[in-house]
Specification:
- The protein is mainly alpha-helical and 1388 residues long.
- The chain is built from 60 helices and 15 strands.
- A 3-stranded mixed β-sheet has the order 3-2-4, with no helix packed on it. A two-stranded antiparallel sheet has the order 1-5.
């Protein structure tokens, strides 16, 4: 039978863009014709394939214009323009100030986003991703609604309560400064709220005892519609509650709302806010990242090129020349030997390395420039920089001479850029230019040399090449970011331009295009965007204008923050992804490196050099067999024979070389049991030896066994106790095995130790420094004495535990030595610190006592080893450290040149005189009259020329610190405003003029925030995500292997369903019929009601179910990461409380926002994780004398912080929690998203409908849901399957061999009374042979034979797995799964 041609049926893919210029065949559809077919199916012959060329439909796709999201938006813009034109002509626009349509029509330049080919590619990719992103948006909005409703029900009116002074005649007004309250004191009694307006219809004016209580002489009064932030922050109705919850999810300004609510309602309100942050910010918002990466990966697979650029990699051509094989771009003809020597020198690998090293030295020399440098020091620094400039000029000349032709030199872009830098920096050496007032800005050319450091460091070079790739996609993304900001800038200018009035010298508004661009960029970074929105909304008192203002800000924030910024993560992950061929190659390399590595290549660890037994002669123990004479046995070591008895690696041929032939014949025969009985002494004398060797198979068990046989003394604990010592065996049984975590956690002794660890942690948590201070002042130390006694007891228990473990496993020089486990090393260090704190008298030592108490926080880490999932997360983070360090180095190499350039242009320019009437530093002397903020009268204040900020560019240390703070997107606007006010000359008063001629000073900060904060921070996040994928083993899986893994995960989640019997009662039977059918009428009504209640969040309930399932599948990993978070939080909370619990409050700390208790500290850490003003709190905790009261006797007597510990703790905490742990949530959700999101059944091996059908068919033969069926029903069950699990012999039911399938004609009956004639008449039928032939001709015999072969294989394999209980549900699923994949590719 001739092979049928391969035809491709055009199908609509969920991610396909219908408004394309030409119709394309989806790569998914093409791959599915091959991948979804059975691997046993015989492919079409090559000849047939060659005879049938692929038919590609090149006809234009005449799709409706408005089917594209992009065209719909364009249509709305055009319609708004004409509506605005009509309103302008009729005068309605000026009369009612209706500029909404004018603002929408300002989006007309959005068409420019597709101006270039690269940006058009990104827009096409986003258009194809739009359906999925809208589904995710609806899913997240569902949770927004739930939390908003909870806010209205619980906190309604909580933010409009103020402490007020009771007055009889005049209206009561809040006290100044305003205090949000939940009750007030009246003669020592806490009273309720006056004029209560709250939740529900009842009167719950009772006081909130855990809220802020007004002092005596005041009342807590409810002021309707008197809410913070211009009355826009509240939970009074659903609209304001939605807006407040959205701002909370953005993690900007949410702590102020939290503390206000805690003051007005209860301190337990923190649970609501922390839950909202966890659900929305940590779990829901990352779905956007998962959706974008998933969609762009699908786009890349469909288009066969990058989703950010359609540029393909250029291929270098190798040509055969007269001088040998050379690349096309390296062909040269050199005649001079000197030129040949120069070419060899320039092309030598050490030449660019030397150049990079000189750049490094030049950068180091620039770091010595400071604000307070003396003129002589500045002169020496200038001389060094001039010398380096001359060197780089000579180097570029040598590089030019080192190329055979001028054309070849220009082919490398780095050559042309270095030549430009060399010429420019040489010109800058001219004295005329150096005396120019703008010279400091031109030093950027000197700093630009630092880019040469990136390719010089191997790890950084590889990472840079990976994440940036060809740089085309990244440049396209940067361009579209700039164009997006530029296009959106006119919209707020039309809405709020000229209306936002403020007293700030440098207001953030939308008055002109430049200011609007900067303001939108600030919102893009997320810094203070909530305040900008509230100030803009306050400029329009009309409610309807506030509504469309909120709509604009919310849409812009979502589009910029959740989509545009996440594209940088998507492009990083795209560059990390490899083609399937590269993945196969990498898999083979890893396999050969892991399994085929010779033992000779293994390098000895440090332990083997320290092991004293390694230097002693070997004394192995040989085997002795009872009942055999010595002349019939040979010399064989016990471990070799033991491996043979355990069916290990020892072979019979190895034994034949050392044992007599009679023994060999016994082994090869049936008398192996006799030998086993005669050699029981091996296992009886050392009953735990084999188990121990199995437990440590991962630690080079073969080498350990051989070394142990050669040195029997090696296994003696503390050089005294052998392994068969009774006391040591008792210790081992008591403490449990060291490496088997499951057996160890089942041990009661270990759970007792776990309880003691929890108790000791509770003691540390309860021992607040504030309580110790109160006890020291009052003399009431009962509570501290109890805590100290508990600490003594638990410390003694831990010491005994350590001794028992050392007795059981040995200390250092044994195979199971205690200190050979890093967890044990940490445990011993923690126990030593506990002993020092419990028994040593160190309270009089100021710094030592504080540090030891802070290090007691490490006790929390001891509980990690008791939970496998949590310890696995810690191991994953540890294994990811090398790549994270490389990413940090890459980020530091970016911060370094920016810091140096910041010193050049802003060192000393932030200084100002506190008297604003002074214009120069020389005039800032004497005193002046000024009014403090808390007093209306003027007093004399001395003038001072200082830097009033916590940030500066006066030295390299402060510059790097402020850049790191800016990169965290916190406080950078204040730094930019200080930079914009920088004067032209050093020593002048900073100023901001009306027309702002020095606005260009913002460029430095905007460029750094774009490259340093947005790009490189997103790159760091991408590295974290890729590292987590690598740890999970997903990075090197091909498409087929990943689909096979997803299929296996799907099948493991399926469980057999028990089907109840249909009731006999008619009414119950009707209800049964409605409920049992999941696609029936009842389910349709319930689905309609759910969608209606949820405000039609999605068009189909399946989309929400899929996203729910993505979170449910990732729930285990999410809980593990949450546990890791809690462990890290507890460790840092104890350290922060010990170091800063007694520190005085600063501008960013309050009575609730501080570190004086464990609860407040945990809230502060959650706040810092979200980045909420963490840097301001750090500077508050870095206060030192003379701005505080120090104490040398006890840190409990002083209120100073520590600058060193503040920088160390705050920076390390922010990096670990915000950049690493927080992104682990994103990594988990991304890794499970592609598995859970079965949006298109054609891209998956099996659908939910197939699995549902399988369960329903199985339930017919297993109604109780036992998971087993009788083998006699197997054939019938397999023939009943539908969909992709269909294994019937005949593909269509009408081909089944039943009477209905064969046309027949029965002859008319004849009058006969004979029984024989009657029987003959029944058999006398006339078959319709022509109809039968037609039916048989429609059957594909080759397909039937192939399907019969598959059916037989599945049937026989399933019968083989039959147990006494029957055939397993999961076994049948597993067998059927192999029919869905190409085994060679999916399992190869």
């Amino acid at each position: 039978m001739p092979a049928r041609p391969n035809t491709f049926v055009k199908k609509s893919h969920s991610l396909s863009r219908v408004n394309s210029a030409h119709s394309r065949s989806s790569a998914f559809d093409k791959s599915n014709l091959h991948n979804n077919s059975s691997p046993l199916q015989p492919p079409a012959s090559n000849e047939a394939a060659e005879q049938q060329p692929l038919e590609v439909d090149t006809r234009p796709a005449h799709a409706p214009f408005f089917r594209s999201y992009y065209n719909r938006l364009d249509g709305i813009v055009v319609l708004s323009y004409w509506i605005d034109f009509v309103l302008m002509l009729t005068g309605i626009q000026d009369k009612y100030n209706m500029y909404l349509f004018k603002a929408i029509s300002a989006l007309r330049p959005l068409r420019l986003l597709s101006l270039t080919e690269g940006t058009s590619t990104i827009i096409d990719s986003l258009s194809m991703s739009a359906p999925l992103l809208l589904t995710i948006l609806g899913f997240i909005f569902f949770f927004f609604m739930i939390l908003s409703l909870i806010g209205v029900l619980v906190f309604q009116g909580a933010l409009s309560r103020r402490c007020a002074i009771p007055q009889d005649d005049d209206p009561r007004v809040p006290v100044s400064p305003e205090v949000i309250c939940g009750g007030y004191y009246s003669n020592g009694t806490i009273m309720g709220i006056v004029n209560y307006i709250g939740q529900g219809d009842g009167d719950d004016s009772s006081p909130r005892t855990s809220s802020m209580i007004c002092q005596d002489g005041q009342i807590c009064m409810q002021f309707p519609n008197y809410n913070p932030s211009l009355g826009l922050v509240s939970f009074d109705n659903l609209f304001f509650s939605l807006l407040t919850v959205f701002t909370i999810s953005s993690m900007e300004g949410w702590t102020d709302v939290e503390y206000w609510t805690m003051d007005g309602d209860s301190r337990w309100a923190a649970i609501f806010f922390c839950t909202a942050i966890f659900l929305l910010s940590f779990l829901m918002i990352p779905l956007f990242i998962a959706g974008i990466t998933y969609s762009f990966g699908a786009v890349r697979a469909e288009k066969r090129h990058s989703a950010f650029s359609n540029k393909t990699r250029s291929t270098r051509i190798l040509l055969d020349t007269a001088e040998g094989w050379q690349f096309e771009d390296q062909i040269h003809q050199v005649q001079s030997p000197y030129r040949q020597w120069l070419i060899r020198m320039v092309n030598d690998p050490w030449f660019p390395t030397v150049g990079a090293f000189m750049v490094f030295l030049d950068m180091v020399a620039m770091c010595f420039r400071r604000y307070d440098s003396s003129p002589s020091e500045l002169k020496r620094i200038d001389a060094v920089e001039s010398a380096f400039t001359i060197y780089f000029l000579l180097e570029i000349c040598v590089r030019i001479a080192g190329h055979s032709t001028w054309k070849q030199f220009w082919k490398r872009k780095s050559n042309s850029f270095d030549l430009l830098l060399a010429i420019t920096t040489t010109i800058l050496l001219l004295p005329v230019i150096r005396q120019w007032e703008w010279f400091r800005y031109l030093t950027a050319f000197q700093v630009m040399r630092s880019y040469r450091l990136l390719p010089a460091i191997p790890g950084v070079r590889d990472l840079m090449e990976t994440v940036v790739g060809s740089a085309t996609g990244m440049l396209n993304l940067l361009l579209i970011t700039f164009m997006f900001l530029l296009v959106c800038s006119p919209v707020p200018m039309m809405l709020f331009g000229g209306d936002m009035t403020t007293d700030d010298a440098q207001p953030i508004n939308f008055d002109d295009l430049g200011q609007s661009f900067i303001s939108l960029f600030i919102i893009l970074t997320g810094e203070n965007w909530v305040n900008i929105m509230y100030e803009a909304l306050d400029s329009h008192p009309e409610r309807y204008k506030q509504v469309y203002g909120v709509v604009f800000f919310v849409i812009y924030y979502c589009a910029s923050h959740y989509i545009l910024l996440n594209l940088f993560i998507a492009i990083v992950l795209e560059h990390f992804d490899m083609d399937d061929d590269e993945k196969y190659k990498k898999q083979l390399e890893i396999y050969f490196e892991t399994h085929q590595r010779s033992k000779i290549e293994k390098t000895a660890g440090a332990f083997q050099y320290l092991n004293p037994y390694a230097y002693l002669p070997a004394r192995p123990q040989t085997l002795t067999v009872n009942g055999l004479p010595m002349d019939q046995t040979g010399s064989i070591r016990k471990n070799v024979f033991r491996q043979f008895l355990e069916d290990d690696t020892a072979s019979v041929s190895e034994l034949c070389t050392t044992v007599v032939y009679s023994l060999c014949r016994t082994i090869r025969g049936t008398n192996k049991q006799i030998l086993t009985q005669n050699t029981t002494e091996i296992t009886e004398s050392k009953p735990d030896l084999i188990a121990k060797e199995k437990a440590y198979a991962d630690d080079n068990s073969e080498e350990i066994q051989e070394f142990l046989e050669a040195h029997p003394m090696y296994d003696r604990s503390l050089f005294l106790l052998p392994s068969n010592n009774r006391f040591r065996q008792w210790c081992r049984r008591l403490v449990g095995p060291r490496s088997d975590r499951q057996l160890s956690t089942m041990n009661r002794f270990n759970w007792f130790i776990f309880g003691c660890i929890v108790l000791s942690i509770a003691v540390i948590i309860a021992d607040d420094p504030v309580d110790r201070r109160v006890a020291m002042v009052t003399g009431n130390t009962r509570r501290q004495d109890i805590l100290g006694d508990i600490d003594y007891v638990t410390t003694i228990i831990f010491v005994v535990e350590q001794c028992l473990r050392i007795m059981a496993d040995g200390f250092f020089f044994t195979p199971t030595a205690y200190l050979r486990d890093l967890w044990n090393v940490m445990d011993m260090f923690i126990v030593v610190m506990s002993c020092v704190m419990a028994f040593a008298q160190i309270d009089h030592l100021y710094s030592v006592s504080r540090a030891v108490r802070a290090l007691s926080c490490l006790r929390v880490l001891r509980i990690v080893r008791y939970f496998e999932g949590v310890s696995a997360m810690f191991r994953a983070i540890t294994r990811a450290l090398p790549r994270m360090v490389v990413a940090l180095v890459l980020t530091a190499l970016l911060f370094w040149p920016f810091a140096i350039y910041g010193i050049n242009i802003y060192a000393g320019f932030f200084y100002l005189c506190n008297d604003t009437t002074i214009l120069a530093k020389g005039d800032c002397v004497g005193e002046f009259m000024n009014s403090p903020s808390d007093n209306d009268g003027d007093i004399l204040i001395p003038r001072a020329w200082t830097n009033p900020y916590d940030y500066s560019f006066d030295s390299i240390q402060t510059a790097v610190l402020v850049l790191f703070e800016m990169a965290s997107q916190e406080g950078w606007v204040l730094v930019m405003q200080s930079g914009r006010a920088a004067p032209n000359y050093l020593g002048e008063q900073p100023f901001v003029q009306a027309n702002e001629p020095n606005r260009f000073n913002s460029f430095y900060f905007l460029v750094f925030m774009l490259i340093g904060s947005i790009v490189f921070v997103q790159i760091f996040i991408g590295v974290i995500l890729e590292t987590f994928k690598t740890w999970q083993g997903l990075s090197l899986l091909t498409v087929e292997q990943r689909r096979w893994g997803d299929l296996r995960r799907q099948l493991r989640l399926i469980k057999p369903t028990a089907t109840p019997a249909r009731p006999q009662n008619p009414i119950r039977a009707i209800c049964y019929d409605l409920v049992i059918e999941k696609r029936g009428a009842l389910w349709k009504v319930m689905t309609f009601l759910l969608i209606t209640i949820s405000f039609r969040l999605a068009q189909r309930i399946d989309s929400l179910q899929v996203l729910f399932r993505a979170l449910v599948i990732a729930l285990g990993s999410i809980l593990n990461i949450t546990a890791v978070f809690m462990v890290v939080f507890s460790v840092y909370a104890i350290m922060f409380r010990e170091f800063f619990g007694m520190t005085r409050l600063g501008p960013s700390t309050t009575g609730l926002a501080n570190f004086d208790s464990f609860g407040n500290t945990m809230l502060m850490l959650i706040r810092m994780t979200t980045g909420e003003n963490w840097d301001f709190v750090m500077h508050d905790m870095a206060v030192e004398a003379p701005n505080c009261t120090p104490s040398r006797t006890s840190y409990l007597d002083g209120d100073c912080g520590s600058q060193t510990w503040a920088y160390v703790l705050f920076l390390s905490f922010y990096i670990i929690c915000t950049y690493i742990l927080l992104n682990m949530f994103i990594a988990v959700i991304i890794s499970n998203f592609s598995f859970a999101y079965q949006h298109d059944s054609q891209t998956t091996l099996i659908t939910r409908e197939d699995l549902r059908n399988f369960k329903m068919k199985w339930a017919k033969y297993d109604p109780r849901g036992t998971g087993y069926i009788d083998p006699k029903y197997l054939s019938r069950f397999l023939r009943s399957l539908e969909g992709r699990l269909n294994t019937r012999v005949y593909a269509k039911p009408e081909y089944s061999p039943s009477p209905k399938a064969v046309p027949i004609t029965i002859s008319s009956p004849e009058p006969s009374v004979s029984a024989f004639d009657e029987k003959r008449r029944k058999l006398d039928v006339n078959l319709d042979l022509q109809g039968l032939q037609k039916a048989l001709s429609r059957i594909d015999t080759m397909d039937v034979n192939h399907r019969r072969q598959i059916f037989n294989v599945v049937y026989k394999e399933a019968l083989v797995t039959c147990t006494p209980r029957g055939i397993s549900f999961y076994r049948v699923l597993e067998i059927l799964s192999f029919t869905l994949v190409d085994i060679e590719h999916a399992l190869g």
